Amino acid sequence: MRIWRHRLFWPSAALVVLVAVNAIARPQFLRITLQDGELYGALIDILRNSAPLMLVALGMTIVIATRGIDLSVGAVMAVSGAVALTIIDGSGDPGATGTVLVAVVVALLVSLVLGAWNGFLVSALGIQPIVATLVLMLAGRGVALLITGGFITTVNSAPLAYIASGYLTVLPFAFIISVVVITALGLVERRTALGVLTEAVGINPEASRLAGVRSRGIIWGAYMVSGVLAGLAGIIYASNIKAADANAAGFLIELYAILAVVLGGTSLAGGKFSIAGTVIGVLIIQTLDSTILFLGVPSAQSPVFFAFVVVAVVIAQSPRTRNALRALGGARRPRAAASVQDRPKVEVAS
Amino acid sequence: MRADTPPIVEMRGITIRFPGVLALDGVDFLLRPGEVHALMGENGAGKSTLIKALTGVYAVDDGTITVAGERRTFATTADAQAAGISTVYQEVNLCPNLTVGENVMLGHEPRRGRTIDWRATHTEAERHLRSLGLELDPRTLLSTHSIAIQQLVAISRAMVLEAKVLILDEPTSSLDRDEVEQLFGVIRDLRDSGVAILFVSHFLDQVYEISDRITVLRNGALVGEYPVADLPRDALVTKMIGRELDDLEALSRSAHRVIDRTGEPVLRAEGVGRRGVLEPADLEVYAGEVVGLAGLLGSGRTELVRLLYGADRPDHGRVAVHGRPARITSPRHAIDRRISFSSEDRRGEGIVADLTVAENIVLGIQARKGWMRKIRKSEQDAVVAEYIEALGVRPADPQLIVGNLSGGNQQKVLLARWLATAPELLVLDEPTRGIDVGAKADIQHKVSELSAQGLSVIFISSELEEVLRLAQRIAVLRDRKKIGELDSGDVDLDGLIDYLANEGKGSAA
């Protein structure tokens, strides 16, 4: 197998190119320094700042694998942050670790319930995922505002601030959360049959049902995972700004998460998914974000610049482009490894 | 209706090729004004392809289409519609969220100046509906009406388009008896007013009730055109199915094995049915027995096994497994009772195309074990290797994507998936359709061998020879109803065809 035929080749190449462009433009980009036993540098910032998007995108990957989509992740982030900060704000001792722990656990439970609600609409009631999660996407921020009483709740709590800004040993705590979640999902996928059953449900729901797969439970679970991870992302976000901002928290993050999943090579049609691909997709987006900042693109134009780069990456990844490139290179070969879904369907009517 | 009336549609030498398949091979077809003409043939015979050639869905590779004396080449369905050819499909192709009147008049609404005159639209629609004997408020939403009414609305719409040719593709498949009568009343009125009607149905009784003439296709070729009066039912069935003298005759007739039917059957179904799908039917399957289900496509054979497996929910009847009452309303329930079902729709309901051969084979076991307990790699490799060997899956590579295998090998993978779950009753719906002769023989041998070892099998096939060869007992279905059971030792192919066509209809014509 040639290396460029690996499904992660193009996403990885895009990431490497981005990093290289940055490194050439500003040599200090690659520099990582150790101060007081903590690592600092542009790369470390990217890893730390990517945590919320990373968590949301990982949940989104599982949901998309089941042929679904979760538009409510941004709203869940807002609710989660609102719940956590309202609890901390209302407690007698906002600075106590115990208070923050309770707040985090309650916020995650609420997020789990919200994810379960999405899963219920999709798997039990059979509502289209885009519609089902749209409900919470629209209602969620209202709920968050209700919880904070319409204000931006701000708190001053050292344990809360630690979540986004603190260091555990030499690495940022937020980055460690990302790593733990990635590892956990990877292990569950490898060590249990959940990965392959999720793919089966996403590729052919009816065949899976007839084969005895409990597809309803699998789909339901995917939305619950997405909910909890979005909740965790919401807490990191709130910790970063030390406030629960119901309108800004996770704004448009659902779209960036979908983008990260797609950049990572997982098809929106469901089925085959790649945790590693999504991780790379998130890093591409986060690096691009930092590149735009550094290059001094005027903030009004930065979405346009961002869009151009994304379009370029997506085009480079599309099977058609790759086939065309291969044909240009004269390396014509049967597409044995190509996905069956890519092949034109021959309709033979009776 | 007379043979000397000049035909409104004349198709000559129609040939259509799909990649690797000759779908129609020089077929002639004539349709005359004022006749109901049935187009008959088994699945894959070319009926739909011929209709799609006539309605502009497919371009013909060879041959000519003449409509009302004019040579035509239809590039789109709109062209065909403009030439007066309208189609009412099995699945109604109307807009459910518009009113009845809007659907009937769509695109032909009376105007007042530049805007649509809605009042006139609905009055006009009502007039059209009434001319078909339909008392229906045109302002009601289409989706609030039954499929039968929706179909009649679709016919009204065809009349608005001033159709001279009306194609009805399986119009009665989801109608009950009264609704069919209402539809037939409308068809007769239209016929008498000079409309040419092309009728496709798998229900033999209905074909004989409504048609004046029958054209039979088989394997993409024309068998012949016959006035109904000259074509008795058994002759029709024989022409549709044809006779294959294949190399499988050599297979020892497992049909002659003697089955011990004294104890409790593995499966006993009493009065299992569902309204509009299948009339209540009984079925018993004993240990080591192969029970064949014979019947034409749409006769209810697939419907029966889907109800037994819980793929669809029955609304009547009782089921007992080994004598113990069992409530089977989902595939899980069936699998837990060691019943497995391989669907006739291999691509749609069988294989998971993007997964590997190995993943597809262990899917059934894994689903039984649940997601927490992943089947160990060594165990998986052993199971997969065993079944690839036993069933002769080619290429014998467990890591291939199953969607890239040939149909016969996909079928073997499915058989492997089910056998790996160690079922006591295996339901095979058309396991040999569309696969090459070698794979077909392999699968038949395997079924015969496994049943001799005690596995119970329900075997469905359109090929009656195959059913006769494998099954000890044959349950015969027709028009969504089980009409009887035969001991395969007591009947030959002609007898079975005769039974299939005529039982309960008096003697053969």
- Individual helix count of chain B: 17
Strand content of chain A: under 5%
Largest sheet of chain B: 6 strands, mixed
Radius of gyration of chain A: 21 Å
CATH class identity of the largest domain in chain B: Alpha Beta
Low-confidence sequence ranges of chain A: 331-350
Helix content of chain B: 25-40%
Give the mean pLDDT of chain A.
87
Terminal CA distance of chain A = 40 Å
Unreliable spans of chain B are 244-250
Tell me the number of helical segments of chain A per DSSP (H or I, 4 or more residues long). 15
* Biggest interface, CB < 8 A: A-B, 32 and 47 residues
Structural class of chain B, by secondary structure, is: alpha/beta
Fourth CATH level, the homologous superfamily of the largest domain in chain B = P-loop containing nucleotide triphosphate hydrolases
Distance between the termini of chain B: 22 Å
Total number of beta strands of chain A: 6
Structural class of chain A: mainly alpha
Strands side by side in the biggest sheet of chain B: 6-9-10-3-11-12
The geometry of chain B reads as: globular
Evaluate the radius of gyration of chain B.
25 Å
A few lines on this structure:
The complex is a heterodimer of chains A (350) and B (509). Chain A has 350 residues and is mostly helical.
Helices and strands in order:
The complex is a heterodimer of chains A (350) and B (509).
Chain A: H1 9-25, E1 33-35, E2 38-40, H2 42-49, H3 51-65, H4 73-90, H5 97-124, H6 129-147, E3 153-154, H7 158-165, E4 167-168, E5 171-172, H8 173-191, H9 194-203, H10 205-210, H11 215-241, E6 243-244, H12 253-263, H13 275-295, H14 302-317, H15 319-328
Antiparallel strand pairs in A: 1-2, 3-6, 4-5
Helix pairs in contact in A: 1-13, 2-13, 3-8, 3-11, 3-12, 3-13, 4-5, 4-6, 4-11, 5-6, 5-11, 7-11, 12-13, 13-14
Chain B: E1 9-18, E2 21-31, E3 36-40, H1 47-54, E4 62-67, E5 70-72, H2 77-82, E6 85-88, H3 100-105, E7 111-112, E8 115-116, H4 118-131, H5 147-160, E9 165-169, H6 177-192, E10 196-200, H7 204-210, E11 213-218, E12 221-227, H8 233-241, E13 267-274, E14 278-285, E15 290-294, H9 301-309, E16 316-321, E17 324-326, H10 331-336, E18 339-342, H11 346-350, H12 357-369, H13 377-391, H14 407-420, E19 425-429, H15 437-452, E20 456-460, H16 464-470, E21 473-478, E22 481-487, H17 493-502
Helix pairs in contact in B: 5-6, 8-17, 12-13, 12-14, 13-14
